[in-house]
Specification:
homotetramer; alpha+beta; six-stranded antiparallel sheet; 3 helices
């Protein structure tokens, strides 16, 4: 997939840095390529739900942002991206040392882009798929 | 809908108190009735995304937990509840002083319970629907 | 909700009549109001799956079209409507004499409209909710 | 993925043959392997919606059944499978000579199995992804 915006990587990094929620939970951008973005989140006890697993909403936080930025990498310069909708299936308990949400664009579009994200829990050499998201992102003009 | 667990309200409150993520973001349980749960989240700048709206993942955090607990209110004592899947549609920018996720059970079941949650942004007397979730919760035996 | 297209009801009926699939399965338009559309489908053995229930794809066929037309009732004259995505939860076995999909617009928009549809199975005086859909419809210019 | 039911392929074929809806629309089972099922549907004018595309409900009919049978291939003998929920994103106009829904199990489980299905439109040598589904299937005991 060919990026229309030559500075897509820097623009994604700039936008990510303007998301206070990412700092609150300790997430960082770990990969930005055309149509693909990864966000990495180290385990922290204050992100858990009542069973000691990463809360589904926090899984969603990194998966949704990875989807939005994956869509953004293929948009023209000066675009803004928002989530229209997403669906998340939780596959296994989200337990691990590090969580990685990897988003891949399935179908780019002028207005709507469909993206999939897989979320992995990593413990040592072990990498387990814990959730998968299918979502729609919309391009709007930057404000 | 008739609760099978006479102490459902206390059990929901106890479980909510064991969710560190709720303390991190500042959410609190504001209503627990048979088949209905509300979670309230005051606006905070550290919960926002790059446009200044509440991040979709944080909307999901309160909506998903409201769904899980709404399902839980109708389960037998000693149950544990987990999310199977959910889908969220984002309807309007999530801007307001307070956000409320209200979940209503659509179809309770012995194993699976289907729940809907509406998330409202409240500013003074103004209450706007900003997102809506449709999800499936599963009952497991408590560990 | 105020219709922008004064002939929305006739336009929906005309479009419905141009859907060959509706004739194949025996569905008919039973209600068209601003933001609300119902499609009715009598039971037929050739619409069933292996357990004798109405196939989830046929439930979807009437629910999705009801959603599309409910969105259409609030669009300007000359619009075309397509489905972006939908999610269906199956709540109970789809058994009955008549099935009715009722769609209600949750959030109309210039481009995207979010709609919910409930599908009921009716047997005599008994009306049971068998499935519920949450979906996104898009307005395109008519070709 | 290892099948627990040595006669899974025959059992899927038998079940498919008991779905009257598949005969009505002209769908046939074209691949059955452990964790993977394909259903093929030739173009027919009576399956179209108002723009001349295959109706999203018919796309769903083959995608959902492919998902159910893909899940079934990994279940013990004597199982019954039902759809819990699915979400479909429509990516491109569903136009072609033949449509193929290919389902792959993402996460098998004792009770719930998560499956993805891609639906392709094929015209001569051209194969285009027109829709993608993410869904949950449940195992019940055969009646």
């Amino acid at each position: 997939m060919n990026p229309l915006n030559p500075s897509f990587a820097r623009d994604v990094a700039d936008s990510f840095a303007r998301q206070p929620i990412m700092e609150l939970i300790g997430a960082r951008l770990s990969l930005v390529e055309p149509g693909v973005v990864e966000i990495t989140l180290p385990y922290r006890t204050d992100l858990l739900q009542q069973n000691g697993y990463l809360h589904a909403g926090i899984i969603t936080t990194i998966a949704d942002s990875a989807c939005g930025y994956a869509a953004y990498t293929l948009m023209p310069a000066g675009s803004n991206v928002l989530s229209v909708e997403f669906k998340l299936n939780l596959l296994r308990p989200a337990q691990g040392e590090i969580f990685v949400a990897r988003a891949d664009v399935i179908k780019p579009g002028r207005t709507l882009t469909v993206v999939r994200a897989d979320v992995f829990a990593i413990t040592g050499d072990d990498k387990v798929l814990v959730a998968t998201m299918q979502g729609t992102m919309i391009r709007t003009d930057a404000g």
